[in-house]
Amino acid sequence: MFNTSSAQQDFSSNGTLPQNLERLHLILIALYSVNLAGGIAGVIVMALQLFQRNIQSVMTIIIINLMVVHSILLLSLPFRLTYYISSEWKFGWFTCKMFSALIYAHMYITFIFYVAIIIIRLLRLEFQRWYTKTWIAAVWFVGTVVIFPIFLSYYGTSKNYNHSKCFQFHRDIQEQGMMIANYCMIGIMVATVSALFIIQLAVIFQLAMKYWPDMNSRVEFRAQMKSFFFILVILVCFIPHHVFRIYYIQNFPLEDDHELFLYNEIFLAFTALCCLDMLCFIAGIAH
Question: How far is Cα of residue 188 from the mean position of the Cα atoms in its chain?
Answer without folding.
Answer: 15
